[in-house]
């Protein structure tokens, strides 16, 4: 391993906040990283990290080296992208991350066709519902619901993602068809909950166009949209669902939209996120293929919701 590689390794350790996390990403033992950082310090003749048994901190010299390492990574990335864009035929590794549902339902069909068209492109698809650091983990593209907070990343909205209120016929037989948002709020609901987000209200606009919140009676919470959908299909709860999780359940009569005259606030749209504006040709072509598959005006998932344009 040369000095450049060791500098980039040091950058990963600092970005991840620990030797263990950096080792996990590289799939190597943490002792290997520790030895390489020590060799880097010997090569440069300066201490870069102050280490304890549980943590580390950058020295003044280390902080300067991290800045240079970030610049070096950017320069190397630009060099590789420039070279790749001179190939007429896309090639190389395309590394993508997304949530599990998006990856399985919407990206996998595009990837299958993409690799038939461009067999020299290798694909690594990482399905993970956590927000990964696409720069430090080396991803070309990330597909996410919601605009990223990191202003250093490039984010492009690729599809809207509206909400609708759903229940199974069995639920309606048990509780009746609610006529107002207040009636609905008294019924059992399945709602999303994670470490960072907890849905406890229905957000909508009243007849005057003013924003309103109606507290809901949650009896089942999960951090996975498909689990919430399965619970709703059981007939025991209703669900304020993002449209992108809907398949053919409404067309087949397994789910029924409720209170379709209520104007719900739009859910977070789907975004493609990438670290650089100058995309390699393979990345740009895949991005275009995803947009084409999802639909530029009407998202593909709305095809399973008859008359959705007149609802909510």
Polypeptide structure, described:
- The chain is an alpha/beta fold and 312 residues long.
- It folds into three domains: 3-85, Winged helix-like DNA-binding domain superfamily/Winged helix DNA-binding domain (Arc Repressor Mutant, subunit A); 87-161 and 269-304, Periplasmic binding protein-like II (D-Maltodextrin-Binding Protein, domain 2); 163-267, Periplasmic binding protein-like II (D-Maltodextrin-Binding Protein, domain 2, 3-Layer(aba) Sandwich).
- The chain has nine helices and 15 strands.
- The chain has helices at residues 3-16, 19-26, 30-44, 60-84, 100-117, 169-175, 181-185, 225-233, 281-294, and strands at 49-51, 56-58, 92-98, 121-127, 141-145, 154-159, 163-167, 188-192, 201-205, 211-215, 217-222, 238-242, 256-257, 263-264, 270-274.
- The strands form four sheets. The protein has a five-stranded mixed beta sheet, with helices on one face. Strands 11-8-12-7-13 form a five-stranded mixed beta sheet. A three-stranded antiparallel beta sheet has the order 10-9-14.
- Helix 1 (3-16) crosses helix 4 (60-84).
- The mean pLDDT is 92.
- Keywords: DNA-binding, Transcription, Transcription regulation.
- Belongs to the LysR transcriptional regulatory family.
- It comes from Thalassotalea piscium.
- One of its GO terms (molecular function) is DNA-binding transcription factor activity.
- This is DNA-binding transcriptional LysR family regulator.
Helix content: 25-40%
- End-to-end distance: 58 Å
Q: State Rg.
A: 24 Å
Question: How many DSSP E strands?
Answer: 15
CATH-scheme architecture of the largest domain: 3-Layer(aba) Sandwich
* Helix-strand category: alpha/beta
